[in-house]
Amino acid sequence: MTEAKIRECTEKAEALVARMTLAEAATQLAFDSLELPHLGVPAYNWWNEALHGVARAGTATSFPQAIALAATFDPELVETVADAISTEGRAKYNAASSHGDRGIFKGLTFWSPNINIFRDPRWGRGHETYGEDPYLTSRLGVAFVNGLQGDGEYLKTAACAKHFAVHSGPEKLRHEFDAVCSLKDLRETYLPAFEACVTEANVEAVMGAYNRTLGEPCCASGLLLVDILRGEWGFNGHVVSDCWALVDFHEHHKVTKTAEESAALALKAGCDVNCGSVYSSLMDAYDAGLIAEEDVRRSAVRLMATRFRLGILGESGSGWDAVPFDAVDCPEHQALNVRAAEESCVLLKNDGTLPLYPGDYGHIAVIGPNADSRSALRGNYYGTAARYVTVAEGIAGYAGDKVRIHYAEGSKLTSPSSDFIARRNDLFAEAVATAEHCDLTVLVLGLDETIEGEEMMSGSFSNGFEGDKADLNLPECQRGLLRAIIDTGKPVVLILEAGSAIDLREAQAADNVVAILNAWYPGALGGEAVANLLFGEASPCGKLPVTFYNSADDLPEFTDYSMANRTYRYFGGEVLYPFGYGLTYGDLSVDSAQLTADNRKIIVTAVNDSDYATKDVIQVYIKSESPFAPKNPKLAAFAKAEFAPNSRQLIEIGIPEDAFSVVNDGGEKLIPGGKYALYAGTGQPDRRTAELTGHDCVKLEVTLPE
């Protein structure tokens, strides 16, 4: 969308709001804004979700969860997925509005993506994010926003970067918690992805978080909303509160005493849309002298401008009105869904057993609580797909009549018994017998959104942590099932469906666990993708966007928002699987690299010493000698490429200038000059990655003027 068109829409919004009474303008600041028929303004509901597909609005393509998309390390693919989502969003909006339905989850303002940093693996909503790294998150966040908003005269849909800012649990405390961090951590870790989405992608909306940050409620933060978002970054869109977050001002944060005071505090700080009920008190706040008329009209103009930019106010023919209903979950999007799932899966272990060849196996067992689970495909914030393929269904469908597939549930997700009258672990015997009867077992374990997710009512949640995890363990019943299947001595391929780091040390150490594939929450057709990977129709190429620690005991307190000893950039201990790690069926390594004269590009020679065609991600890390640099090398650039069998390939990767920057203790970004070490490889330049892959990174040194 051009700057001229943005200004034109703002001018139209100003003219429209000038014709409203103050009370009418105030009604437009609610998430369920009212119709103003005499002004040609239809009702509009601002609340819609599109985290990994149009959510909560009936049928839509259900793509892999956000953390899975992050594992692709592929901004182009993420943008393509987001473009498909926005196409379906337009198709559904066109159909609903043509029938007069302008209710919740029917609009074009999508409250996605979630670009918070997944700083602690216990956070239940971490799988909504793009992982733990600010640079990766910024690249994928920008790509997703671009895909949602399109590149036309009008916005295709409006994206929303959330939750601004310094927000990543605990869920139990989010309504009252003050996330305290240093200015260095704020600018180095928590804000870069938001800045990129605003300044590069021109994201149309930003959602404030529930918590306070540095003492201020995020939805009324002078530092975040006034000084940084609109002041430093020049944001020209609208701000929306998280749902019922403004109630927390007076009920939990205790920074105000009444709903009128909370409404005034948020409005004057620039919160334009209230998801909740507090803005029903705006006129009372005005009558009490807590807000001025211009405060209300300013926000109303911003919101009308968004609707004009979408082409849904005052005129038609935006170009997007012609998107047909049959674009929803169409064959093209289903094929993209399978591809995204294939490229998101991360191969954590493989002794050479994978890929499987059906002729080598007469009987394969498929066992586990997630083997035939639709819930384990979805993650949270999901739509309803036209069809689903679980892992068990995918394997059976691929095998056809070539292999006999035997299925056993083995255990429930969290319960040791199949029924309240059944004995403990009563499903183990069938699972063990099934494994013993077969040549190989595919064991499918993990979690779903009932174990890790958004805040839940205490008592309804299996571990009592309101959405967060207590630790990194699989549920006890699944750990028992894993041991029972390992004890059969038969070869086991472990499939993990979960959205966060899990303690897999026992499986990694077991000789007969021949392979481990992390499938995340792989989307509605995830079982088809997993089968394609297991049987070699595709090669795994996903990389971990988070660190798999050995134990939560190695981490600081969950409530500690300092980055000290957190994420791969600052962690000082041993890990199970490092950030950026992931195997392929190829044997990729980087054997040489050189920088261009201006240090803005690195040219690497990558080698595939195998008979398999594959994709892989070449990663570049950088370490400054500055005392303000992160403890460990940080991700500076990356590129995904395809590799033919037994081939060498030159790959050119741009190094952003920002890669050479550091953030000092005062929160100031600077390029200090001096010596830098750059590393190029298929993972981090750490000992554990080298141990797991058998390859070291290539190291380059460069000196910049002080």
Topology, pairings included?
Blueprint: H1 3-18, H2 22-27, E1 32-33, E2 44-45, H3 66-71, H4 75-98, H5 134-149, E3 160-164, E4 178-179, H6 183-190, H7 192-199, E5 205-208, E6 212-213, E7 216-217, H8 222-232, E8 238-240, H9 245-251, H10 259-269, H11 282-287, H12 293-309, H13 331-344, E9 346-350, E10 363-367, H14 375-378, H15 391-399, E11 404-408, H16 428-437, E12 440-446, H17 476-486, E13 492-497, H18 505-509, E14 513-518, H19 526-534, E15 548-549, H20 567-570, E16 575-577, E17 588-595, E18 601-608, E19 614-624, E20 634-643, E21 647-654, E22 662-663, E23 669-670, E24 674-681, H21 687-693, E25 698-704
Parallel strand pairs: 3-5, 4-6, 5-8, 10-11, 10-12, 12-13, 13-14
Antiparallel strand pairs: 1-2, 6-7, 9-14, 15-16, 17-18, 18-21, 19-20, 19-24, 22-23, 24-25
Chain-averaged pLDDT: 96
CATH superfamily of the largest domain: Glycoside hydrolase, family 3, N-terminal domain
The CATH first-level class of the largest domain comes to: Alpha Beta
Give me the CATH architecture of the largest domain, please.
Alpha-Beta Barrel
Which value, in Å, is the CA radius of gyration? 26 Å
The percentage helix is: 25-40%
Per the CATH scheme, the topology name of the largest domain is: TIM Barrel
Number of structural units classed as domains:
3
What is the 3D form? globular
Q: Count of DSSP helices? A: 21
Instruction: Determine the oligomeric state from the structure.
Output: single chain
Characterize the main sheet: 6 strands, mixed
- Helix and strand content put the structural class at alpha/beta
Q: Can you list the strand order of the major beta sheet?
A: 9-14-13-12-10-11
How many strand elements? 25
Tell me the span between the first and last alpha carbons: 40 Å
